[in-house]
Amino acid sequence: MANLVRVAAAQMTSINDLSANFSTCSHLAKEAVSAGAKLLCFPENFSYMGYKSGDSLKIAESLDGPVMTKYCSLARESNIWLSLGGFPEKGSDDVHLCNTHVLIDDAGNIRSKFRKMHLFDVDVPGGAVYKESCFTEAGNDIVAADSPFGRLGLTVCYDLRFPDLYQQLRFHHDAQVLLVPAAFTKVTGQAHWEVLLRARAIETQCYVIAAAQAGKHSDERESYGDSMIIDPWGTIIGRLPDRLSTGIAVADIDFSLIDSVRSKMPIAQHRKPIEFWTSKQ
């Protein structure tokens, strides 16, 4: 494994048009390849953003269906790995889907998949009411996958607010790079997006690649944007010039930096299980 490897985080404004979104993703893949990136991470809802909540049920399909097959072909033809966060995978019945993060290698093979664990059922202060559980099945499995870019921890959007998942990925699944595809709302993104991402990087000593939806998808939906890449010290090392434009943020994963940060501050050795503290009471 090379000591330095280039990765990219995409930023886009998906709409309720599968073909238009695929065209945007294809353009971004070309841009990433030209920049020398070997992994391109797309945001949640990259392939389809419904006009309103639940619209994705109409186009949900299995991972061997025609939409995902096109993205597998894109990875193969572009010779680049793709992180496809938040794909509407057909669920166990006709009224539910899985919000699935799919990892595809540069030969077009699906290497891993993670189904979003934490569903966005909230009344956003100053914003809209969301009830993702009405049409989405929550996943139960923590997923980490080996790659040329280190050991990748897969998550999706709202998972970001639950540090236990990221602790598990680092300390029990040996993750080195955490992938956070998202479609944060404008209100929550402005308040919490960057600080949560940097916290996850710092507390796990992992790189974080956060690909975000940006701008107005329709009259009903708007996303915060601000795709970024963060190193294990919590420093933002890749970011678009503005938080709303379509494009890519590029940075290098430096495995020697991961080793350096972890050896100088060995939190894996210092970490105590919660039971240790409760037993002392």
Automatic annotation (TrEMBL):
The GO molecular function terms of this record are: hydrolase activity, acting on carbon-nitrogen (but not peptide) bonds, in linear amides
According to its UniProt entry, this protein's organism is Fraxinus pennsylvanica
Q: Is-annotated flag, keyword Hydrolase?
A: yes
Q: Which UniProt keywords apply?
A: Hydrolase
Instruction: Give the protein's recorded name.
Output: CN hydrolase domain-containing protein
What are the CN hydrolase domain coordinates in residue numbering? 5-255
* Keyword Hydrolase applies: yes
Q: Quote the InterPro entries the UniProt record gives.
A: C-N_Hydrolase, C-N_Hydrolase_sf, Nit1/2_C-N_Hydrolase
Gene3D superfamilies the record matches: Carbon-nitrogen hydrolase (3.60.110.10)
